[in-house]
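=== RUN LOG ===
request id: a7f3
mode: sequence -> structure
chains: 1
length: 375
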Amino acid sequence: MKRLVMALTALVAVSVGLLHAQDVVGIWQGTMQLPQREVRAQIRIVNDGGGLKATLQMIDQGPGLMPATVSVQGSAVKITIPGMGGSYDGRLADANSMEGNLTQPGAPTLKLDLKKVSAEAAWTPPPAPPRPAAMPADWKPAFEVATIKPSEPGTPGQSITVRGRTFATHNQTVASMMTFAYGLHPDQIVGGPAWMKDDRFEITAEPEGSGFPNDKQWRAALAKLLVDRFSLTFHRDKKELSVYALTVLKTGAKLTKNDTDVNGLPGLFFRGPGVFPVRNATMGDFAATMQAVVLDRPVIDQTNLQGRYDFTLIWTPDETQFGGRGGQVPPPADPANAPPVLFTAIQEQLGLKLEGAKAPVEVLVIDKLEKPTAN
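=== RESULT ===
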């Protein structure tokens, strides 16, 4: 009799778990209270035969979708959103209600209670502004207009951004712009005047034509601007350098594929030293950003991973990273729970490996470079 009761109890527990897994499939939505306003969030959960998957959409912030993974344990629901480095931890109150919190590194926890709704009752995001047709593949990248001015001394932050058809740099040196334009590590730029690594510039530019350049075309347009406005000339050579090889662990990569916008631009913006959310990016994009911004040597992508991915990499930087600024990051309040060092974080969080090696790599040897011409 005791064995029968235990068996029935186990059967009930399994049945409840299956019921909850089925319950979460559908459209869930709710509001979060930010300091200045409310934000509507919508999570769509599906079971495509390979397990539960989801997309998160901030309804009031446009049509962008963030892929997510879902796990259900009894009434507990965890939705992991790699593109923001965060997760939603909820609990089913009943078949149509879920209570929980949205957490994100470096940000306050947000209360988010969700209700399951029908497709007819689901919120509709505002329509995205029409995107211009893509630039033709044979477009000769060039900016029609471009303003260049020195950055204000002491200006914080650095960035290269694209908004619509406007390309902009903030607080960028010529050396950093070259690493972006040509996909290089700073060690792959040889020669040139000292000011190329010290003087910083603000650039705002619009491309020729009426289309929407892809990321390679934006880079090529910046390369042409450096030639036209900074009188840059160089020749290519080979040099053996210390490099990092990026590979996949035998256990496989831990990355979330992003198929929502295969022609969109990647999102590669640091939330702070050691907090790197990556959205809609290839492994080549990731390697190029790590070598240009974080690491002290070039990174060679040997993963053979195709497509675009979402993930967030979190680690404790050291003094060799971010151009020596990594060691200036304040120590964690709780050292016992500090993020791992970069090489461990890449293995544990991404299923990848970063390993030192020696290899011949291409370098650009600068023959001429001048301060920019007038706008």
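=== NOTES ===
The radius of gyration is 24 Å.
The CA atoms of residues 52 and 306 lie 23 Å apart.
=== END ===
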